[in-house]
Design brief:
8 strands, binds 3-hydroxy-3-methylglutaryl-coenzyme A, binds magnesium ion
Length: 298
C-alpha cells in the first residue's frame, strides 16, 4: 500500500529562504546546503535564477552554486522562470532545473507577471534548450488546492496544466498547495482526478503547512500512490506572492513519520535536525518543526 522508499526533495534553501526579509549571508546558505547533503538529502533545491527585483533573497544563487562543495550522489537544482534563468543555471552547472506554472490565473500574474498560457509558451524554448543540454526539468503547478486571490481551484484545471507541462518535457510535476489550505479529502479528490490522465509516479506533492494539514495530506498522497514529497528543513519559508502562507512541511517531521512507517528516505534524522537548528540560530528564529523541538528538549 505504501512505497518502500520516498524521494524527499528538500526545498528549504530555495522555498525556505526566498521569503526571508533581511539578506542572508552567502556563507549561511552554503553551510545549510552542505549540512543537508551531509544529512543524506539527495535532492536539494539550492537556489533560484529569477529576477533579483522580484526576489532579492535569491540574487546570489550563482555564488551559492559556485561555492558549495558538491557531493556526487546529490542533485542540486534551481528554479528558472525563463531563458535568462536557464542560461544562468547552465553557467552555474546545476544538475536539474524547475519551471513554475500555476493553476490560478491571478497567481500566475502576481508571481511571474503573465497568464498561464503565456507561461507555457515561455517555457517551451526553455524545455527545448534544457533537453539539448540533457538537463532534467521539473514542473511546479501552484495553488492546486486553493488560491489566495481566487479561492477554490478546480481539479480539472490543475490536471490540464500538469498535462501540458509533462507533454512539453517535464519529467515530474510537483503539486503546490502554495497557501496550505488543503485537507486530506481535497488532496484525495485532486489526485483521483489527476490519475485519470497521469501516472501518479510522475507526481510529487508540495504542501505548505499554514493550517497544519501538510503531514496528513502527505499520508493521503502516499496512500494514493505518490512517492515524491517536497519539504523544507525546520518548516522554513513561504511565498512572497502568497500573503500569509507559512513554510513548507518540515523535513524533520516528514522523515520522523516515514521512519515510523519503515519507509526509507536515506536521511539521517539526527543530522537533519542539527542542520535545521543551525539555520534557525543563524536566522534568529524558532524552528517550526515539532520533531526538532522534541529532540532538542530531550
Ligand atoms: P518581468 O518583469 O515581467 O520580466 O518578470 P522582464 O523580462 O520584463 O524582466 C524584468 C527585469 O528582470 C529585466 O531587468 C530582466 O533582465 C530581469 P532590467 O532590464 O529591468 O534591468 N530578469 C532577470 N534577471 C535575472 N534572472 C532572470 C531574469 N528574468 C528577467 N531569470 C519574471 C518576469 C518571470 C522574470 C519575474 O516575474 C520573476 O522573476 N518572478 C519570479 C517570482 C518567484 O521567484 N516567485 C517565487 C517562486 S514560485 C513559488 O515559490 C511556488 C513554489 O514553491 C510551489 C508552490 O508552493 O506552489 C514553486
Ligand atoms: Mg512552495
Amino acid at each position: 500500500m505504501y512505497p518502500n522508499y520516498v524521494k524527499v526533495v528538500e526545498v528549504g534553501p530555495r522555498d525556505g529562504l526566498q521569503n526571508e526579509k533581511s539578506i542572508i549571508p552567502l556563507q549561511t546558505k552554503i553551510t545549510l546546503i552542505e549540512q543537508l547533503a551531509a544529512a543524506g538529502c539527495k535532492y536539494i533545491e539550492s537556489g533560484s535564477f529569477v529576477s533579483p527585483k522580484w526576489v532579492p533573497q535569491m540574487a546570489d544563487s550563482d555564488q551559492v552554486f559556485k561555492h558549495i562543495t558538491r557531493q556526487p550522489e546529490v542533485h542540486y537544482s534551481a528554479l528558472t522562470p525563463n531563458l535568462e534563468g536557464l542560461r544562468a543555471a547552465l553557467s552555474s552547472s546545476v544538475d536539474e532545473i524547475a519551471v513554475f506554472a500555476s493553476a490560478s490565473e491571478s497567481f500566475s500574474q502576481k508571481n511571474i507577471n503573465c497568464s498561464i498560457q503565456q507561461s507555457l509558451v515561455r517555457f517551451q524554448p526553455l524545455l527545448d534548450m534544457a533537453r539539448a543540454h540533457h538537463l532534467p526539468v521539473r514542473g511546479y503547478v501552484s495553488c492546486v488546492l486553493g488560491c489566495p486571490y481566487e479561492g477554490n481551484i478546480s481539479p480539472s484545471k490543475v490536471t490540464t496544466v500538469c498535462k501540458s507541462l509533462l507533454d512539453m518535457g517535464c519529467y515530474e510535476i510537483s503539486l503546490g498547495d502554495t497557501i496550505g489550505v488543503g485537507t486530506p479529502n481535497k488532496t484525495a479528490k485532486l489526485l483521483n482526478k489527476i490519475s485519470e490522465e497521469i501516472d501518479l509516479k510522475q507526481i510529487a506533492v508540495h504542501f505548505h503547512d499554514t493550517y497544519g494539514q501538510a503531514l496528513a495530506n502527505v499520508l493521503m498522497a502516499l496512500q494514493q500512490g505518490v512517492a515524491v514529497v517536497d519539504s523544507a528543513v525546520s518548516g522554513l519559508g513561504g511565498c512572497p506572492y502568497a500573503q500569509g502562507a507559512s513554510g513548507n512541511l518540515a523535513t524533520e517531521d516528514l522523515v520522523y513519520m516515514l521512519n515510523g512507517m519503515a519507509i526509507n528516505t536515506g536521511i539521517d534524522l539526527h543530522k537533519l535536525t542539527q542542520a535545521g537548528l543551525s539555520i534557525m540560530r543563524a536566522l534568529n528564529k524558532p524552528t517550526q518543526s515539532k520533531v526538532a523541538l522534541a529532540l532538542k528538549n530531550q
